[in-house]
Amino acid sequence: MIVGNSDDANNIAAIVYRELIDDLLNVPEDERPDWNRQSHEDGEHDAVRDKKRIDDLKVEMRNGGRGDLEQKMPFSAYTGRYWNAGYKWMDVDIKDDELFIDASDRSMGFYLTFEHICDQTKYIAHQSDFVEGGDIQIGAEFVFEGEKVVRLGLEIDEDLDEMIWFDREGSEA
Predict the structure, then answer these.
(1) Rounded to whole angstroms, how far apart are CA atoms 98 and 71?
(2) Which comes out higher in pLDDT, residue 2 or 59?
(3) Which domain holds residue 34?
(4) Alpha helix (H) ranges present in 34-144?
(5) What element of type H or E holds 139?
(6) Are residues 152 and 73 in the same domain?
(7) Quick check: 167 pLDDT over 70?
(8) pTM, whole model, 2 decimals?
(9) Are residues 87 and 159 both part of a single domain?
(10) Per the structure, how many domains does the chain have?
């Protein structure tokens, strides 16, 4: 077993175990694949795939919306504390004229900034790792009851085909 303490440790682990297997099987050096290059090419393929997924998500969100592409609702309508039993509290604040979540207090800390897509409810959340930075784009959706946001959905678990839902503190959602 090879372990690491980073989201990207699996890339290094894959290179190491493949090289160890080549050693174990006595594969001649000149016949071995360049596992480092292969991992890099796989990463580039993943980045292209992820960009296409986000582009498709934006199109889907806009097509499923009512067509209101401009952010009109004041950010104060979204700010507050949101709860999920598994992820605990998420506080939506305003930072640098954007909706923002600071979740750096978790074991795998991160930040989220929100990009409005349409209908005052559909967003792309830009997730940045607390330690490593980066920009992973995920779907996000706010649910309104009247003029008040009562729920926040985030696609923060890539193994699920649905959003993780957070109920706003003080709402009966």
Answers:
(1) 11
(2) 2
(3) 9-63
(4) 35-64
(5) strand 133-145
(6) yes
(7) yes
(8) 0.65
(9) yes
(10) 2
One domain, residues 36 and 73: no
Q: Of 19, 47, 63, which marks where a domain is finished?
A: 63
Domain match, 58 and 72 both: no
d(Cα 138, Cα 163) in Å, to the nearest integer? 10
Q: Is 51 inside a domain boundary? A: yes
Is the domain of 137 the same as that of 114? yes
* β-bridge mates for residue 98, sequence order: 95
Tell me: do 40 and 87 sit in the same domain. no
CA distances from 119 to 8, 69, 158 (A): 35, 6, 24
Q: Residue with structure tokens 């950010």?
A: 75
Tokens of 58: 């934006």
Q: Which residues of 27-54 are buried (b: 16+ CB within 10 A; e: fewer)?
A: eeeeeeeebeeebeeeeeeeeeeeeeeb
pLDDT value at position 168? 96
Pairwise CA distance, residues 28 & 64, whole Å: 55
Angle at 17 between CA 13 and CA 22, to 5 degrees: 150
Report d(CA 164, CA 149) in Å as an integer.
Answer: 16
The two structure tokens encoding residue 48: 């292209």
Using CA atoms, how far residue 40 sits from 3, 43, 46, 171, in Å, is 19, 5, 10, 46
Quick one: residue 94, left, alpha or beta (phi over 0 = left, psi -120 to 50 = alpha)?
beta
